[in-house]
Amino acid sequence: MAQTTHHKLRDDTAMSATMSGQIGEQPLPQAGVQSASRVLSRHRTSLSLVLFAVAMVALAIVEGLMLRSNTADHAAEMRIILAAGARWAAFVPAAHAIAVCFSAMVAVPVIAILLGVIWAVTRSVGQMLRGLAMAALPMAVIGLIKTIIDRPRPSTARGVLMPDPSFPSGHTACSVVVVSLALFMLQVIDTRIRGTRRLAGLSAGDSHTPAIGADSAIPQSLVVWRGVRAVLTVVLIIIPFVVAFSRVVYGVHYPTDVGTSLVLTPVLTWCVYRLCEPMR
């Protein structure tokens, strides 16, 4: 009897140990692991973006300091400005109009309208603030670099009248910001249209009597929208290059001023866009 009781106690102990081991070896919940992995990946991406943006700004500052002290580059760029002004003299009135369009007096209301459209489409304050950061932060950095470098304007009739430093080009940077916001607006509109189409498809599938013309009208409108979006995207991408060219022809910026803005501002805008991306 005592031996039987001893064996029973030993078996119970072994079973308890086995169950404890199984419980201890159970994996963490899959959702928790995936969530932690996403957060870690987001932090790494954010750090990489910040470091990349800082490196680009540092390179722009070094470039500006070198250009300001290099008289040979200054003379070469002045020859380009004078040649462009003489060759494209008929473009000067258009260059003046472009300068007005991308001045703060016009650009700020345009940016406000774009932000309003983004909010109206998404009904998300976060997305609107994301767009605001895409506009404000790059322009603030461009203004800071202008102050640090303090490069004089080209010695032309219009250049000497400009009150702010030359490097980098503020108008070119402003055009990149406006275009970036417009592209962002097209993206959220596209997302809204695709979501509406998906909901319409689900409604038609769940209904016993599908809506008349739903299968033909929605795809056709989507094709039209894709064409319109493609054309607008191409036109928008061209605009900053036209603005940059106009600033040189107008005689108020060196080619390196506009070239730096064409490279640096899209990088800063894209970094802000990615850094402010909502968590999924």
Please give the number of β-strands.
0
Q: How do the SSEs run, as a string of H and E?
A: HHHHHHHHH
Question: What is the alpha-carbon Rg in Å?
Answer: 30 Å
Mean pLDDT: 84
Largest sheet data: none
Oligomer: single chain
Helix content: over 70%
Q: What are the low-pLDDT stretches, counting only 5+ consecutive residues below 50?
A: 22-26, 209-217
* Cα-to-Cα separation, first versus last residue: 64 Å
Tell me the structural class.
mainly alpha
- What is the number of helices? 9
**Beta-strand residue fraction:** under 5%
Q: What coarse outline follows from CA principal-axis ratios?
A: globular
Structure write-up:
- 81% of the residues lie in helices and 0% in strands.
- The chain has 9 helices and no strands.
- Helix 2 runs parallel beside helix 6.
- The longest helix is centred in the first third of the chain and has 40 residues.
- It is globular.
- It starts with a helix and ends in a 5-residue tail after the last helix.
